Amino acid sequence: MQTELEDAGYTNIQILGVNAEGYESGNEDVCDGRDLPWLQDTTDEEVWDLWDVGYRDVIILDGNNEVYAVFNLTTYNISSSSNYEALMDLFVAAESEL
Question: N or C: which end of the chain has fewer CB within 10 A?
Answer without folding.
Answer: C
